[in-house]
Design a protein that fits this description.
The protein is built from 3 helices and 26 strands. The protein is mainly beta. It has a single domain, classed as Outer membrane protein transport protein (OMPP1/FadL/TodX) (Porin). Strands 1-3-4-7-8-11-12-15-16-19-20-21-24-26 form a 14-stranded antiparallel β-barrel. Strand 13 and strand 14 form a beta hairpin. The longest helix has 21 residues.
Length: 461
């Protein structure tokens, strides 16, 4: 038990450090939901709910935590870059980006899980516990101050992160369930520590040409539930067909802050941001699974309840309201992924190698009449690929030392691994029309391309 406590203390320390590093900047993506929360899953197009066999199960399907042995940790980061090109019906053009060529540092994730039976807690032998820090929603988008729609947006940021205490229980040999809290919050070490909406004043609240900024923050609770069922096993008892369902609840943030002009507060202000409920169903099939290699194919379907985002009206302390209707629509996403693992490699004894690929199709949630270039949105195709390298304790690291000797003192890892991924976000061209008044300026064609790549490091004790 003393060694188990040492594992947990060290693991929690690593998780906190990873959380601070990974959460040091806003989650940057062109849509508010950030799908990727682990490099292995990202390499498979995030089709991972029915596999969920590494610590990122905390996010993708908490029930999958029961598959993890001992104490396991994972931390990683994603690098995001790309541009959106705009051309108006009159020929004016401009380009927006993610506050630079790429967001630095990028969105990140950190997890730790502990199988209580492996820690010697016999009366809790079917329980696994864990905690994670992720960036599941967020956007950073910057447009030039002289863009045609400067009065609507020049910069948006949502540096929101999620703290996830989670438990999982194996009900039956083939059925596990999991549940966790989602604590959505802001902090000073994470971006600016609040949501931001910036624009250039057309006059009225502040003199024309003034830099307007609304900022606000809050903490809000949510929850998630998951189930993982093994429908079929092979002769070795290994799963070859899994079914999964995951539910993530809606959460409401009341963003309290201020409206500023040229950095000077005009009024206290507040708005309400609703994070949608998400329902995921998944099926994973292993056409090949034996001691030497395995091949998995997985299909996930996501329903995202964006219809809960009705408006982002800003309420000022003097009773005035800056109307910002949204009227988003709920959407579906199709996620398909595959992974091929090799467990026995003659030239690399003690190593495992995985090759991954995936495809995601995601619908736009923003209608033309409430489109805001601060959250560019169009039907999206994501092409993913990745590789995983896992070294067991008897494997050799660079031919110099065994992977099991990389630890400190009594903490010798059973495995050390790194996962790498790349994704190309190919947005379909979108033409916005029909807006009038001050919103006439958003009418035009938007062409967006985004690239993401990153890594996760995994350690098991």
């Amino acid at each position: 038990m003393n060694r188990a406590r040492t594992h947990l203390r060290v693991g929690l320390t690593i998780l906190v450090l990873a959380g601070f590093v990974c959460a040091s900047s806003p989650a940057s993506a062109q849509v508010p939901r950030v799908y990727g929360q682990g490099a292995a899953a990202s390499g498979m197009g995030n089709a991972f709910a029915a596999q969920a066999d590494n610590p990122s199960a905390l996010h993708y399907n908490p029930a999958g935590m029961t598959q993890l042995r001992g104490v396991q940790m994972m931390g990683g980061v994603t690098f995001v870059g790309g541009t959106t090109d705009f051309r108006s019906p009159t020929g004016l053009s401009t380009t927006g980006d993610h506050d630079g060529a790429f967001a630095w540092p990028g969105p990140g994730h950190g997890y730790i899980t502990a199988n209580l039976q492996d820690l010697g807690v016999s009366f809790l032998n079917r329980w696994t516990v864990g905690v994670g820090i992720t960036t599941p929603f967020g956007s950073v988008m910057r447009w030039p101050d002289d863009s045609p729609f400067q009065a609507l947006t020049t910069f948006t940021a949502l540096p929101l992160f999620d703290i996830k205490p989670t438990v999982a229980y194996q009900l039956l040999p083939d059925l596990s369930v999991g549940a966790g809290a989602d604590i959505y919050t802001f902090a000073s070490f994470f971006g600016e520590g609040h949501a931001e909406l910036q624009s250039v004043s057309p006059g009225g609240l502040a003199p024309a040409g003034s830099r307007l900024e609304f900022n606000g923050k809050d903490t809000a609770p949510g929850f998630n539930l998951g189930a993982l069922y093994t429908a079929l096993r092979n002769g070795d008892g290994r799963p070859v067909a899994n079914l999964a369902v995951v539910y993530r609840s809606q959460a409401t943030l009341h963003l309290d802050g201020a409206l500023l002009a040229n950095g000077v507060k005009i009024q206290d202000a507040t708005t309400t941001l609703v994070l949608p409920q998400v329902i995921t169903g998944g099926i994973a099939v292993w056409p090949v699974r034996n001691n030497e290699r395995e091949w998995k194919v997985e299909l996930n379907v996501d329903y995202v309840g964006w219809k809960s985002v009705r408006n982002l009206d800003i309420h000022l302390a003097n009773g005035a309201v800056i109307a910002q209707p949204q009227n988003w629509k709920s959407t579906y996403a199709i996620l398909v992924g595959t992974e091929h693992r090799w467990f026995k490699i003659d030239r690399l004894p003690g190593w495992e190698i995985a090759l991954r690929a995936g495809y995601t199709n995601q619908q736009t949630q923003v209608p033309d009449l409430t489109f805001n270039p601060g959250v560019p949105s169009a039907d999206l195709h994501v092409i993913s690929t990745g590789i995983g390298l896992l070294c067991q304790k008897n494997g050799s690291f660079l031919g110099l030392m065994s992977c099991g000797s990389l630890g400190i003192g009594a903490l010798k890892p059973k495995l050390v691994g790194v996962d790498l991924f790349y994704q190309a976000f190919l947005y379909e061209p979108r033409t916005i029309a029909g807006n009038t008044g001050i919103r006439t300026s958003v009418n035009g064609r938007y062409d967006s391309t985004l690239h993401a790549g990153g890594f996760s490091v995994r350690i098991s004790f």
